[in-house]
Amino acid sequence: MEILEKMEYITLNNGVKMPMAGLGTFLLSPDEAQESVYAALKEGYQLIDTANAYVNEKAVGRAMRQSKVPRENIFLETKIWPSFYEQEDAVERTLERLDTDYIDLLLIHQPAGNYIAGYRLMEKAYKEGKVKAIGLSNFNEEQMKEILNICEIRPAVLQTEVHPYYQAKELKKFLDEEQIVIQAWYPLGHGDKELLEEPLWKKLGEKYRKSPAQIILRWHIQSGNVVIPGSKNLEHIRDNFRLFDFKLTEKEMEEIAALERNKRYYTSTPELLQRYAEMVPPVDTQK
User: Among all residues, which ones are annotated catalytic?
Assistant: First the structure.
């Protein structure tokens, strides 16, 4: 497949090769997730992101089977939720829901509850070959240092908010030093109209014949950010993958870097993390 051949990859700190662009399934119902994942895999996507808390892992597993794409050609990523960190069978139950023998990348979803216990669970699964790489989601630098100080297996990826209005430059410096790849959620700024209507996208879009979303996603990839935009719109799924037939210049990358506003769309608080630790997603009743 022509598009598949153009995919760009990044090598994680344990040698695992990860696609730079994929599909996220946050806020998708099981039916939506199944349809979107199936469409994405048929389009040539390799990276699929889900989570216990999305309550659509079973649907993702069904879409993978339905697509007939060989399992080794799919980079499957999911996240363990805080209320499961101390459950010894949390990884096994996740594998069962996804109907797969292994997970390519498993993350701690939130720095809430006993996340050290959760990390130990992931390390055990990694040693047993059930997980190919492990990492973190929504951790700040201080919280990551805590993990780095106690871990046997270093985290390979941090999934966190990154977009042109919040570029996480200091965090990325730290991650580069630690050889940890950054993966952007909200890569398009949570659909912020102001961001998507920046005049710069129009100028670059006319030059490259690309949409604002495609320009932004290309900026991410050239910045070393893995992207997982989510969508249930089949046209957007297709367009969000047309990122490998053009390249922004150094000057254009600098112009985008100048858009930094330190503007976040998600802010973690102790109260929010406490709620996460107490919340139990209905994973056993999902479709």
Answer: 54
